[in-house]
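User: Fold both of these, please.

Assistant: Here is the first one.
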Amino acid sequence: MRLQTSWLTGRCRGGGHAVSRPFLVLAPLLALVLSAGVWVAAAEEPAPRLVVLCDDNYPPYVFRDSSGRLQGIVPDQWALWERQTGMAVEVRGMPWSEALRRMQAGQGDVIDTIFFSARRARSFRFTKPYARIEVSVFTHRSLGTIDDVRSLRGLTVGVKAGDVVVERLRNQGVDGLRIYPSYEAIILAAKEDGLLAFCVDRPPAIHYLYKHEISHEFREGFVFTVGAFHRAVRQGQPDLLERVQRGFDRIPRRDYEAVERRWRSAPLRFGPLLSQWWRWIVGIAVGVLALLLGNVILGSRVRARTQDLRQAMEDLRQSLDAQTAADAELRASREYLATVLDAVNDAVFIHDGQTGLILDVNRRACEMYGVAGREQMVGQTVAAGSLGVQPYTAEEAWRRMQLARAESPQVFDWQARRLDGSLFWVEVSVRHAWIGAAERFVVSVRDISERHRAEAERGRFREQLAHAQRLESIGRLAGSVAHDFNNSLQIILGYVDILLGDLTPEQPMHAEIAAIRKAVLRSTHLTRQLQALARRQAATPQRLDVNAALSGLIPLITRLIGEVIQVTWSPGQDVGEVLIDPGQLDQVIVNLCTNARDAVGPTGQIHLSSAAVDLAPGQARLIDDMPPGRYVQITVRDNGPGIPPEVLEHVFEPFFTTKPAGKGTGLGLAIVYGIVKQNGGGVHVDTAPGEGTAFAVYLPQQPSPAPSDGASGGTAPA
């Protein structure tokens, strides 16, 4: 029966106290007056009420009787709280998972009979623990020995929805969990549906095993965990939490003990036991009565010792509660630390300060090094992840870690190896720390492979820019010299033409002056080459169909190259047009083909091809730092010996040649480069010793011209 304190008399109803007769006479009148006052007060402002949510299937703490009313230790304790605080309490029982859901949705003020966990601590604030609960694993007698969690792997294990053990069992590899709404539903499944194992809090498990008469079929295998009952409020309500705890702290201990004695000795728990073992119980009762008769003589001494024993038990219980709370706090701290480390985007290693062994890693470390789980890294030496080659050795890593003792942190770049053998660059930060009396190195590792690739790419761009600037400088110098030299040659050529006009072929000096004129013309041709190199050559750009222009040039190239060397031509599809002077295009192709002829020797193959390509920004930058877009690609490929690396970086420089003296001027490829750059394109060389060479010329593709008016077809009206 729930204890309720009368605010009028100060006496308890239902507690066995006598009620005075004057009160019985005046009660109707007083009740009428007070009811009217209460009604008026209620109409003005509703009385505050504390809504408490809890499980309704957890005997002897809370359960429903045959009429559906909540009863047990929890409702009676809240009745004591209500009497101490004067605030009305409404205890609402329901399936545990539903109680958790409603509490998180704000449909209750306090939730009772809740275990502490790190996950729940994100949503709730907890009172001090008030009951120590063992959570045990029960198994059918037909199973073998089940004495630890590993023995449960592969079995179907019954658990209650919303229990903390659901997550903890899964974390320890027990995947065959079957969720039930209540503890009684689990016991019924064990009785009727063949469930052979379940993890249940011990008090309700014992009760329902006897209630449903299957206690002889199941045995308690082992205690999976020990928890503590708390009361909790939602985060952000510290005042409510303090009020709840303060109210329970004010309840006298004798009242708590009275509630405990009432429900732990009630027939609710032992009724089924009596029905099965009444003969044994009667015999035990007779023996107990005999002992009681004998204890009359020693009563006073027994009571004194009993009081001492109770005090010792109370001290032990408080010590166990404190130990349980400390264990819970320790587990929560570890779970919190693991959660924080796993949220860090860098790999984190904890090393022993004396041996260098890895003590712990976070999730990112496993991902970064391609490892399946922490257990593959924990216990390894500092060499894990190092290459073992200079300078990235285990000895060097350990030396740098030890430097952190004097100056922390130590930050350096390191080349690491994944489990699959691939290499990658990381930035390592080593900090020295003392955790209690233990020396530790805390190492954070950041993947900087992209940074290294970007730096390497910037280096290539700097080299390309320096090369282009060098060519540009040489070209400007050559163009300036060629311009002045060409002016002088034109004057000489004018005077020579005047002299030849005054002389007939039979006259003396005519042949010498004609020879002078040939030499001047050759020098004039050389100056044109230099001007083309400097992009100062006068040109008349035109829209050219590349395939048509190259097809017309093939016969000339064949005669120029000779019949011994095989020349092939592969025109691409939809190559389109480019904007260039036709003579310049011919000069580019002829220079590349004659250069290929000299590379392949007396016999060999030269292949000419065309194609339309789209260059992305990254590709265009790598090909002579061109802007991205659509280009026509003209490729001249030979099967010669290729170009060595030390020669390749100079091939476009003017007057650089590997040919013997008198066999080449070193201007052919320089002129090709100058003409292509003058027309907004670029040149790319693909070569390797022994594998031939391919020069690819890229010229911007011209968009197709828009159709002119009247060109849409059809017959014009007469």
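And the second sequence with its predicted structure:
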Amino acid sequence: MSAATAALNGRWAVLIIEELVRLGVRHVCLAPGSRSTPLTLAAAGHPALACTVHFDERALAFHALGLARGSGATVAVICTSGSAVANLYPAVVEAAMAGVPLLLLTADRPPELRDTGANQTIDQVGLFGSHARFSVDLPVPAEDYPAEALLTTLDRAVYCGRHPLPGPVQINVPFREPLIAAGAPTATPPPLWPTPDKPYTDYQPPAHALSADALQAFRQALEGVQRGLMVIGRLRDDAERVAAEQLAAGLGWPVCADITSGLRASRVKASWLRHYDLLLAADAEGLETPDAILHLGGELVSKRLLGRIATWRVPLLRVADDPRRLDPAHRVTLRLQVSVATLAAALVPASATDASPRPASPAVKISAWHHRLLAADARLGSAVAAALDGPGALDEPAACRLVSRGLPADAVLCLAASMPVRDMDMFAGADGACVPVYSNRGASGIDGTLATACGVATGSGRRVVLVCGDLAFLHDLNALALLVRQRPAVTVVLLNNDGGGIFSFLPVADIGDPFERCFGTPHGLALAELARGFGLACSAPATRAAFRAALAEALASEASTVIEVRSDRTANLHRHRELLAHCAAAVGCDAAPGA
């Protein structure tokens, strides 16, 4: 009976892994563990799979998240039972919020050991609740359970992880002991499939077309708009970026492109408002009320722009290939669930659908309102360049701007979800390469930042530059073990202000004595020494010129490196206020509000 159980476990695991490969899974992230042994051996033995092994399930899941983002494909995670499964939860939440396909194969004890006090046994069935797009508890491997039923369950699970909204799915896989037979060869899958390479059930997703009625409603919403504003949030890929440029050129409206769109810091041939967040910081009314707003893609980083959208009582058109409401201010008047590329294909002439960025259409007349906004944006651009581009002290805004202007065209930019993504949104140049930008802004946590960046590099096959703060770095310290062996390499720009710098910008900073202990949370750790302990090369440039050289050297290296920018939280707060006052003067305001 023991030998039969072990053989069943092996065949069961091989069936699961073979079907996942047929479903398009090409990368599996593995955490060491006993109960998941059959799945681990099947995955490690499959020639079509690349496997990443890491000892920390939390970092491993974020690495899988980055892999899925960078590759656009479903990535599988295999872990053992018990608290190992709970450690996947933060990445599951981010994947659910950001729409990233993850497949979680969580090994488990058999039903007779659950709720008995058996070792390493928790209630992990449906553990991820509403954050999972699909969840199933498989039966224990058994001779009388049809293999076809197992395959169709897997097919449905992977499909639900991609349609109608990508996200995480959990397949709970219980095994009885003995888990494997000593010295037994890997089982071979039986001839169950009707075709050599396809899954047992080939799910074909429905085509998402823009109906004639929806297109007519969209055109009607644009009629008579004299002062239209286009807002571009997070975009998924190059096709969406090209489509957003085409729509912007066709409409000729002022454009506010979020840093996570990948267009904010790039040399786009269009007259866009690159410093809208600084304009609103310098003059809360500076972005004059539009007649209508068109919001493409995902959510925005700029709290100021979100606040203005919430106060403007004007039609708001929201376009995103996402069935969720996506309307935190409850201002959306027309909602199109369609991709930006699909909308562009319906509105832009066929002759303009190649992949080349285009200047604003000569047929579009720029309004006086648009001219005023462009003039204000140009003054802000000159003010920021004067403050941050020349020789001077290396501070956090300057480091972010230098990164934005120093990225090679084949790189990917990753940003931690706290101050780095905000500083990049405010101070990035407008003359950099058009590269993908990723930030875990689904739930906007700082956990898993390093591991996600490593996954993005592997999934995209491109070098990554990550800008993160010291607490995000410390929070994901175990991922340095991934970083040291990461290829393509990741360059980490570490903004170290010895604590939670973002809290200095919040009202809680004025409460006095408890602030530093409970919010500032200084750690006093030598982060570069910690990184060197993992075998990573580190540098700590003190000037802008030295930072440029360090970044260029890191980008030329095949190994991952850490560039530490040391700063002081109080000085950083004052520097931001100084820059905002400088911007306020540039647009003719007496003073800027607090940062």
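The first strand starts at residue 27 and ends at 30.
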